[in-house]
Amino acid sequence: MRKRNIFITVVLITSIALMGLDVYENKKQEAIAKTESERIYTVSDILKDADFNEKPTLNIRAVVSTLLEPHPIINVENEEQQKRIMDAINNLQLKKTNDATPLKDVDYLINIKLNKEYALHVFEKKKQIQLLDLNNDSTEIDDEYLYYYTILNGDEFFDALKDIQ
Hints:
Dna Ligase, domain 1, 4 helices, alpha+beta, 7-stranded antiparallel sheet
């Protein structure tokens, strides 16, 4: 009888300890997720491999109505405009969002060639952007490229894009 009581006591204490550990881990994961969702990103945080010191090649398409219609590609060759657009891109503050905008609603398609090629899908009406690494030759996609980002300070950026049209 005494062995049985000791066994039950040990099982209860172990169960309580495991439940406490589980609650602790869940709270820890919730705190990490909350911190991550409140984090403010810059474009260089997301495009980790980009060398922004390299002279860029910018191709911009302003989507007038739908993606199915042809859009003129604007090659930004004026160095002053390139610098203004790249500075505006580098100054963007972004926040991850779960609110994905359909690609058919894109306002600008921007291809940037630095040391690697990147694409930016810009949704001006929703103040969102999606960044893509076009040189990703692996089957793995970096987590950063799976998200849409809300643009927190886009006035300078959108003004620079409108000035090239």
